[in-house]
């Protein structure tokens, strides 16, 4: 079976085609094959975030081009495609709608059924497929989400999540405060700067059970950022214990060390609680190598291992939507055309996972 | 067509055998060594052992927080010390106020260990799992309701004395009683069953709160409400089959102390915030 996947819940539009080669009774028995995986990112100027309206315009401008190119690259004929999968939510309203509209149009044009996919479940299923992790605790970290998830009884259950803002959002806004560029994406630039940081500055460490809070870090970072400016007289500038000036690099380093320690800790707590030794990191922030490294050290201490994917699959893409959609399609679920809406709020645990035992 | 996906995990030693726990992963600080210790569990942060302390008949738990290799050493020391001190202080306070918690028998925050009274019994998590799997006794459902009521009152009592737990899960709530068959003291339990004595049932046991590393001393309704929210979500995620029981926890909590009703109202706000938070991909 072959599916076309369309994703556009945030500032990236992703189009991909996936093949499930061998599906007796709709259940894949072999790993999926990626036929094409294209993406285009809307990048806003440094110091500003992406607004829903501009992002939706961006997606509308790119969607047709990307679909054409993806189908061509996959070397499939329209007749070979079984269904069209699109992101139903969660995400930003206008961008979601622009892509859902494209999916509906294609569905009518080609006479193909639609599958509405939960974005988070897309990340999880793609991560499982790529890494072959069978039943991991999942840390899902992106611009809009921070969740610790484990599967049980036909649902991905949320054990922990952020009590305020998402980790990716925290990093992006922190980067904006320090006027770090958004290209290719703020988290990447923070990661590069952090490599040159040496001094750990105290930041609020917000862990409540398996939940986290990042708003305190952000507030502290905003204050700290004003104290490192080189326009200040030297004696007013922030210094480390041994009297060295604190730099932008040090702040990035401290942000990463603190925020990622929080994420690893809540993941470890969930692993202890459910008794699992595998951990899978998905979502855009999951492509951060320092986070992967820290997670690996934690998992090793528990006699387990960490699974992660690279930016092709971690960062929002159409393939994951195609893959998760096709899994659901394989169980016989059909979405009536009238129900092919989208929604900004769509919790991971609302999805009935009929394709797992 | 692209080749099939490469299923190589990142940063994992290929030879880590997930199913064996042979070689110890940690060494213990003096005065402890592994020989006299029986590993109980590897908790979220701590390695928990049973042993005897001072006299050979005093059963205790050794809770050791080893350094976390993933954490920056400065941050790690700061957290371990803060949590160990918070835990010890809160345990002492709770005991003084008559809240059911294990007694603190000793500790060293530089080295990261605490010795606590051993609580005979099991975690609420284990009890509920056993119950859901059909280890139901006569009057099972009623007894579980009663147990949930005691959980609500125990948390209420804790809040009343000015402590917020910070990590309420069913793993951090214990039920005092005969250990479940698979746990310690199982033999004894089986014997009693064989003699068909009126069997002391773990479901009747009293609730003991443990694991206070994230506890704070606070009487703020917001923090109390978040405490309940954390428990509610852990409950729903861990025990889908028993999710309906949680309302009994909240009902009993609501009647347990003067400010409780206000906290329950605040809990609705906290929930709403959780649901409404825009979740962007
Ligand atoms: N006093 C005790 N008596 C009996 N069993 C205990 C006791 N304390 C802990 N346990 C057992 O050990 C497990 C882990 O202990 P605990 O929750 O204190 O550690 P943890 O989760 O690693 O805590 P922390 O997050 O503070 O490091 C408990 O869930 C319980 O099964
Ligand atoms: Mg615990």
Ordered list of secondary-structure elements with their pairings:
The complex is a heterodimer of chains A (357) and B (281).
Chain A: E1 2-7, E2 12-19, E3 33-41, H1 52-74, E4 83-89, H2 93-110, E5 114-118, H3 119-131, E6 137-141, E7 146-152, E8 155-161, H4 167-177, H5 186-194, E9 207-208, E10 211-212, H6 215-226, H7 248-274, E11 278-282, H8 289-301, E12 305-308, H9 311-314, H10 318-330
Parallel strand pairs in A: 1-4, 4-5, 6-11, 11-12
Antiparallel strand pairs in A: 1-2, 2-3, 6-7, 7-8, 9-10
Chain B: E1 38-42, E2 47-53, E3 55-64, H1 73-97, E4 104-108, E5 113-117, E6 121-123, H2 124-132, H3 140-160, E7 163-164, E8 173-176, H4 186-194, E9 207-209, E10 216-217, H5 221-238, H6 246-254, H7 260-276
Antiparallel strand pairs in B: 1-2, 2-3, 3-5, 4-5, 6-8, 7-10, 8-9
The structure holds adenosine-5'-triphosphate and magnesium ion.
Quick summary:
Chain B: Keywords: Activator, ATP-binding, Chromosome, Cytoplasm, Hydrolase, Kinase, Nucleotide-binding, Nucleus, Phosphoprotein, Serine/threonine-protein kinase, Telomere, Transcription, Transcription regulation, Transferase, tRNA processing. With 357 residues, chain A is α/β, with parallel strands linked by helices. Helices cover 40% and strands 19% of the residues of chain A.
